[in-house]
Amino acid sequence: MSDLDLVALECWLAAKLPGGDLRIERIGGGQSNPTWLVDWGGARMVLRKKPAGPILSGAHAIEREFRVLRALERTDVPVPKALWLEEDETILGTPFYLMERLYGRVFTDCTLPGLTPEERREIYLDMARTLARLHAVRPEAVGLGDYGKPGYYFERQINRWGRQYRESPGGVVPALDRLLDWLTANMPEEDGAVSIAHGDFRLGNMLFHPTEPRVIGVLDWELSTLGHPLADLGFCVMPWHTAPDEYGGLLGSGWETSGIPSRAEFEAEYHAHAIPTPPLTAFHIAFALFRFAVIFVGIADRARAGNAASAEAATLAPLAERFAFRALDVIDVRQSVVCRA
Asked: What is the pTM assigned to this prediction?
């Protein structure tokens, strides 16, 4: 059963492409923008839309997602082709867009069960190379020079995510408060590095070739902006600092003998293919964990409001605190925070 207005969608599609039978299928697992597979005549597409109900300011920015996909089509960053954006919310209740459907594999388990050690290693290393290719794209060369404010990225992001956390109706998370204070007090000096930052660059947002350990599509660009490349890199190495029950991390999984490269090897592969970029520090990893913790705060808020994109959203709410504690472990100040019962 679909919660889309199929008659309205069919009429909308008919104005874009020759008619055909409409078939849709909801894609599960996402915690953010609801997504469907759409078959319309001979066209195979994917529809993404904003969720219904109240959302935080700046969240679920599918318009930005569509724009960056269009811009990157002319680069060597693998992305699906963006087809149409519809900002008139009266059609399907919220704005939406359609993109081409790519056929490949999505891995949600960072341990990559069922694959050979060689495949596991190459999948991670190709993620690193893909991220390096993204950061090598000059925003102004693809029409994204105004896609965000260059410079002082971490300061602006900490203010933004801190504000979203404080505006949450879900109550205080002491560990997250402590982490926010530390990040604010330990901001690195501005170094002028600017790239197109994905904002959620992780294994589950990559589409891999059906048989080869190669990225064929980077998905879920709603958090993208002009930012610091180390923000993405810090986000990408989070699995080495989180457990399997913490949204699919690696800690305690035995990954060391599985073929998965070490964090140092992953970073080295990135730097070997990237434009000159400073080393990753504990601040960047703690910042990434902080952002993910606030994302889980938002997921919990939407679950309480009844409009989260996944039925699992309510069970993910405790991860806000757990990710905050992982960040405090990274910066070695966890002992000063008392965990809530």
From this structure: 0.88
